[in-house]
Protein backbone atom coordinates (compact mmCIF):
# COMPACT_ATOMS: atom_id res chain seq x y z
CA UNK A 1 0.00 0.00 0.00
CA UNK A 2 1.12 3.54 -0.72
CA UNK A 3 1.67 6.39 1.74
CA UNK A 4 -1.13 8.80 2.54
CA UNK A 5 0.58 11.49 0.53
CA UNK A 6 0.69 9.22 -2.51
CA UNK A 7 -2.92 8.11 -2.02
CA UNK A 8 -4.06 11.74 -1.77
CA UNK A 9 -2.20 12.58 -4.98
CA UNK A 10 -3.69 9.60 -6.82
CA UNK A 11 -7.22 10.56 -5.83
CA UNK A 12 -6.66 14.12 -6.93
CA UNK A 13 -5.20 13.01 -10.26
CA UNK A 14 -7.94 10.48 -11.00
CA UNK A 15 -10.68 12.98 -10.14
CA UNK A 16 -9.05 15.48 -12.47
CA UNK A 17 -8.83 12.89 -15.25
CA UNK A 18 -12.45 11.84 -14.80
CA UNK A 19 -13.50 15.47 -14.78
CA UNK A 20 -17.05 14.64 -13.71
CA UNK A 21 -17.63 12.19 -16.56
CA UNK A 22 -18.11 9.17 -14.27
CA UNK A 23 -18.59 8.56 -10.58
CA UNK A 24 -15.48 7.32 -8.77
CA UNK A 25 -15.91 4.26 -6.57
CA UNK A 26 -12.84 3.35 -4.52
CA UNK A 27 -12.44 -0.45 -4.47
CA UNK A 28 -11.27 -0.99 -0.90
CA UNK A 29 -10.66 -4.73 -0.50
CA UNK A 30 -7.66 -5.35 1.81
CA UNK A 31 -7.51 -1.62 2.70
CA UNK A 32 -7.90 -0.90 6.44
CA UNK A 33 -10.68 1.42 7.64
CA UNK A 34 -8.21 4.08 8.77
CA UNK A 35 -6.94 4.45 5.21
CA UNK A 36 -10.45 4.29 3.77
CA UNK A 37 -11.48 7.13 6.08
CA UNK A 38 -8.40 9.02 4.97
CA UNK A 39 -9.58 8.57 1.38
CA UNK A 40 -12.82 10.23 2.50
CA UNK A 41 -10.72 13.16 3.71
CA UNK A 42 -9.40 13.33 0.15
CA UNK A 43 -12.88 13.51 -1.32
CA UNK A 44 -13.85 9.87 -1.84
CA UNK A 45 -17.59 9.49 -1.15
CA UNK A 46 -18.23 5.98 -2.45
CA UNK A 47 -16.47 2.70 -1.72
CA UNK A 48 -16.94 -0.86 -2.88
CA UNK A 49 -16.16 -3.98 -0.87
CA UNK A 50 -15.81 -7.51 -2.30
CA UNK A 51 -16.12 -9.90 0.57
CA UNK A 52 -18.93 -10.05 3.10
CA UNK A 53 -16.70 -11.05 6.02
CA UNK A 54 -14.24 -8.28 5.34
CA UNK A 55 -17.03 -5.73 5.00
CA UNK A 56 -18.50 -6.83 8.35
CA UNK A 57 -15.13 -6.58 10.05
CA UNK A 58 -14.53 -3.08 8.76
CA UNK A 59 -18.05 -1.71 8.78
CA UNK A 60 -18.21 -0.23 12.28
CA UNK A 61 -14.97 1.69 11.75
CA UNK A 62 -15.97 3.22 8.43
CA UNK A 63 -17.08 6.83 8.46
CA UNK A 64 -20.60 6.32 7.10
CA UNK A 65 -21.40 10.00 7.47
CA UNK A 66 -19.12 10.58 4.51
CA UNK A 67 -18.95 7.22 2.72
CA UNK A 68 -21.61 5.29 0.85
CA UNK A 69 -20.90 1.57 0.61
CA UNK A 70 -21.52 -0.68 -2.39
CA UNK A 71 -20.99 -4.42 -2.63
CA UNK A 72 -19.02 -5.30 -5.77
CA UNK A 73 -17.83 -8.89 -5.29
CA UNK A 74 -19.30 -12.33 -5.85
CA UNK A 75 -22.16 -12.73 -3.37
CA UNK A 76 -23.32 -16.00 -1.84
CA UNK A 77 -27.06 -16.18 -1.40
CA UNK A 78 -26.79 -17.14 2.28
CA UNK A 79 -24.77 -13.99 3.03
CA UNK A 80 -27.26 -11.45 1.72
CA UNK A 81 -28.74 -11.19 5.21
CA UNK A 82 -25.50 -9.74 6.58
CA UNK A 83 -25.28 -6.87 4.13
CA UNK A 84 -28.89 -6.07 3.25
CA UNK A 85 -28.99 -3.29 5.85
CA UNK A 86 -25.47 -2.00 5.15
CA UNK A 87 -24.98 -1.38 1.46
CA UNK A 88 -26.66 1.01 -0.89
CA UNK A 89 -26.10 -1.01 -4.06
CA UNK A 90 -25.11 -4.54 -5.08
CA UNK A 91 -23.15 -4.64 -8.35
CA UNK A 92 -23.05 -8.40 -8.78
CA UNK A 93 -26.55 -9.78 -9.23
CA UNK A 94 -26.03 -12.72 -11.56
CA UNK A 95 -28.64 -15.37 -10.77
CA UNK A 96 -32.29 -15.56 -9.86
CA UNK A 97 -31.97 -17.16 -6.39
CA UNK A 98 -29.69 -14.28 -5.38
CA UNK A 99 -32.23 -11.71 -6.58
CA UNK A 100 -34.98 -13.59 -4.72
CA UNK A 101 -32.99 -13.53 -1.50
CA UNK A 102 -32.27 -9.81 -1.84
CA UNK A 103 -36.00 -9.28 -2.38
CA UNK A 104 -36.86 -11.33 0.72
CA UNK A 105 -34.34 -9.64 3.01
CA UNK A 106 -35.08 -6.13 1.80
CA UNK A 107 -38.82 -6.65 2.08
CA UNK A 108 -38.30 -7.64 5.71
CA UNK A 109 -36.24 -4.49 6.27
CA UNK A 110 -38.75 -2.31 4.46
CA UNK A 111 -36.11 -1.01 2.07
CA UNK A 112 -35.34 -1.13 -1.62
CA UNK A 113 -31.92 -2.29 -2.86
CA UNK A 114 -30.33 -0.73 -5.89
CA UNK A 115 -28.82 -3.47 -8.03
CA UNK A 116 -26.67 -3.91 -11.10
CA UNK A 117 -26.69 -7.05 -13.18
CA UNK A 118 -23.23 -8.50 -13.66
CA UNK A 119 -22.55 -9.50 -17.25
CA UNK A 120 -19.90 -12.02 -18.29
CA UNK A 121 -19.17 -9.90 -21.30
CA UNK A 122 -16.34 -11.97 -22.76
CA UNK A 123 -18.01 -15.32 -22.04
CA UNK A 124 -15.15 -16.47 -19.83
CA UNK A 125 -15.69 -19.96 -18.45
CA UNK A 126 -14.35 -19.22 -14.98
CA UNK A 127 -16.19 -15.94 -14.49
CA UNK A 128 -19.56 -15.24 -12.95
CA UNK A 129 -22.12 -13.08 -14.68
CA UNK A 130 -25.06 -13.42 -17.03
CA UNK A 131 -24.30 -14.21 -20.67
CA UNK A 132 -24.68 -11.09 -22.84
CA UNK A 133 -27.50 -12.65 -24.88
CA UNK A 134 -29.45 -13.50 -21.71
CA UNK A 135 -29.02 -10.17 -19.97
CA UNK A 136 -32.17 -8.48 -21.19
CA UNK A 137 -34.42 -11.38 -20.21
CA UNK A 138 -32.72 -11.60 -16.81
CA UNK A 139 -33.28 -7.90 -16.20
CA UNK A 140 -36.95 -8.33 -17.05
CA UNK A 141 -37.17 -11.20 -14.61
CA UNK A 142 -35.63 -9.44 -11.64
CA UNK A 143 -37.61 -6.25 -12.12
CA UNK A 144 -40.64 -8.24 -10.97
CA UNK A 145 -39.29 -7.81 -7.45
CA UNK A 146 -40.64 -4.69 -5.77
CA UNK A 147 -37.73 -4.35 -3.31
CA UNK A 148 -35.07 -4.37 -6.01
CA UNK A 149 -34.45 -1.38 -8.19
CA UNK A 150 -32.49 -2.17 -11.31
CA UNK A 151 -29.95 0.61 -11.84
CA UNK A 152 -27.87 -0.87 -14.65
CA UNK A 153 -25.07 -3.24 -15.52
CA UNK A 154 -21.60 -4.11 -14.34
CA UNK A 155 -18.78 -6.19 -15.79
CA UNK A 156 -15.22 -7.23 -15.06
CA UNK A 157 -13.60 -7.70 -18.48
CA UNK A 158 -10.67 -10.05 -19.08
CA UNK A 159 -7.32 -9.02 -17.63
CA UNK A 160 -5.13 -7.63 -20.37
CA UNK A 161 -2.09 -5.39 -20.72
CA UNK A 162 -3.53 -3.05 -23.29
CA UNK A 163 -6.70 -1.18 -22.22
CA UNK A 164 -7.63 -0.80 -25.89
CA UNK A 165 -8.32 -4.53 -26.00
CA UNK A 166 -11.29 -4.09 -23.70
CA UNK A 167 -12.94 -1.38 -25.75
CA UNK A 168 -14.91 -3.96 -27.75
CA UNK A 169 -16.36 -5.26 -24.48
CA UNK A 170 -17.19 -1.78 -23.22
CA UNK A 171 -18.94 -1.15 -26.52
CA UNK A 172 -20.98 -4.35 -26.19
CA UNK A 173 -21.90 -3.48 -22.61
CA UNK A 174 -23.04 -0.04 -23.64
CA UNK A 175 -25.25 -1.46 -26.34
CA UNK A 176 -27.00 -3.86 -23.94
CA UNK A 177 -27.26 -1.03 -21.39
CA UNK A 178 -29.01 1.27 -23.86
CA UNK A 179 -31.43 -1.47 -24.92
CA UNK A 180 -32.40 -2.17 -21.31
CA UNK A 181 -32.68 1.49 -20.43
CA UNK A 182 -35.10 1.99 -23.33
CA UNK A 183 -37.40 -0.73 -22.00
CA UNK A 184 -38.28 1.43 -18.99
CA UNK A 185 -38.98 -1.68 -16.93
CA UNK A 186 -40.97 -1.49 -13.69
CA UNK A 187 -38.82 -1.11 -10.57
CA UNK A 188 -35.95 0.24 -12.60
CA UNK A 189 -34.08 3.49 -13.02
CA UNK A 190 -31.36 2.46 -15.41
CA UNK A 191 -28.58 5.05 -15.23
CA UNK A 192 -25.47 3.18 -14.09
CA UNK A 193 -22.91 1.40 -16.24
CA UNK A 194 -20.19 0.17 -13.88
CA UNK A 195 -17.15 -0.39 -16.10
CA UNK A 196 -13.48 0.39 -15.77
CA UNK A 197 -10.83 -0.47 -13.19
CA UNK A 198 -7.30 0.76 -12.53
CA UNK A 199 -5.89 -0.37 -15.87
CA UNK A 200 -8.64 0.80 -18.16
CA UNK A 201 -10.82 3.44 -16.51
CA UNK A 202 -10.15 6.15 -19.04
CA UNK A 203 -10.97 3.84 -21.94
CA UNK A 204 -14.12 2.82 -20.05
CA UNK A 205 -15.23 6.40 -19.50
CA UNK A 206 -14.62 7.24 -23.14
CA UNK A 207 -16.88 4.31 -24.01
CA UNK A 208 -19.88 5.08 -21.86
CA UNK A 209 -19.02 4.08 -18.30
CA UNK A 210 -20.84 6.09 -15.65
CA UNK A 211 -19.03 4.55 -12.67
CA UNK A 212 -15.43 3.37 -12.41
CA UNK A 213 -14.22 1.02 -9.68
CA UNK A 214 -10.63 1.83 -8.85
CA UNK A 215 -8.44 0.10 -6.29
CA UNK A 216 -4.74 -0.23 -6.96
CA UNK A 217 -4.44 3.03 -8.90
CA UNK A 218 -5.50 4.77 -5.67
CA UNK A 219 -4.03 2.64 -2.89
CA UNK A 220 -1.18 0.78 -4.62
CA UNK A 221 -0.73 -2.97 -5.04
CA UNK A 222 -2.88 -4.98 -2.64
CA UNK A 223 -1.26 -7.02 0.08
CA UNK A 224 -3.41 -10.11 0.60
CA UNK A 225 -1.12 -11.48 3.32
CA UNK A 226 -2.01 -8.74 5.82
CA UNK A 227 -4.97 -9.23 8.07
C1 LIG B 1 -10.67 -5.22 -6.92
C2 LIG B 1 -11.80 -4.85 -7.82
C3 LIG B 1 -11.77 -3.66 -8.57
C4 LIG B 1 -10.59 -2.73 -8.58
O1 LIG B 1 -9.46 -3.35 -9.15
P1 LIG B 1 -8.15 -2.50 -9.48
O2 LIG B 1 -7.61 -3.16 -10.69
O3 LIG B 1 -7.28 -2.59 -8.30
O4 LIG B 1 -8.58 -1.11 -9.75
C5 LIG B 1 -12.88 -3.36 -9.33
N1 LIG B 1 -13.96 -4.16 -9.39
C6 LIG B 1 -14.02 -5.31 -8.69
C7 LIG B 1 -15.24 -6.14 -8.78
C8 LIG B 1 -12.94 -5.67 -7.90
O5 LIG B 1 -13.00 -6.82 -7.23
Task: Characterize the structure shown.
The protein has 227 residues and is α/β, with parallel strands linked by helices. The protein has one domain: Alpha-Beta Barrel (TIM Barrel). The protein is built from 9 helices and 8 strands. Helix 7 links the parallel strand 6 and strand 7. The protein starts with a helix and ends in an 8-residue tail after the last helix. The relative contact order is 0.16. The model has no long low-confidence stretch (mean pLDDT 96). The site of pyridoxal-5'-phosphate has 13 residues, from strand 8 and helix 9.
Concise account of the structure shown:
The protein is an alpha/beta fold and 227 residues long. The chain has helices spanning 4-18, 33-41, 52-59, 80-83, 96-109, 135-142, 167-183, 201-206, 216-219, and strands at 23-27, 46-49, 68-71, 89-93, 113-118, 148-154, 188-194, 211-214.
SS summary, helix count: 9
Present as ligands are:
pyridoxal-5'-phosphate
As a percent range, the share of helical residues equals 25-40%
Strand order across the biggest sheet?
7-6-5-4-3-2-1-8
Question: What are its keywords?
Answer:
single chain, 227 residues, alpha/beta, TIM Barrel, eight-stranded parallel sheet, 9 helices, 19% strand, binds pyridoxal-5'-phosphate
Topology:
Elements: H1 4-18, E1 23-27, H2 33-41, E2 46-49, H3 52-59, E3 68-71, H4 80-83, E4 89-93, H5 96-109, E5 113-118, H6 135-142, E6 148-154, H7 167-183, E7 188-194, H8 201-206, E8 211-214, H9 216-219
Parallel strand pairs: 1-2, 1-8, 2-3, 3-4, 4-5, 5-6, 6-7
Bound molecules: pyridoxal-5'-phosphate.
The site of pyridoxal-5'-phosphate (PLP) has 13 residues, from β8 and α9.
Amino acid sequence: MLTKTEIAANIERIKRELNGRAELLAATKTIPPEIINFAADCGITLIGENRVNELLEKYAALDKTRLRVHFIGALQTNKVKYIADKVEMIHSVDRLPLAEEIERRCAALGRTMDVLVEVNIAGEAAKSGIAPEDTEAFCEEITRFPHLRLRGLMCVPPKCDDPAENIKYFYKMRKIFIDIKQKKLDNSNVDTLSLGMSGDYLAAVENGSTMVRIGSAIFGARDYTQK
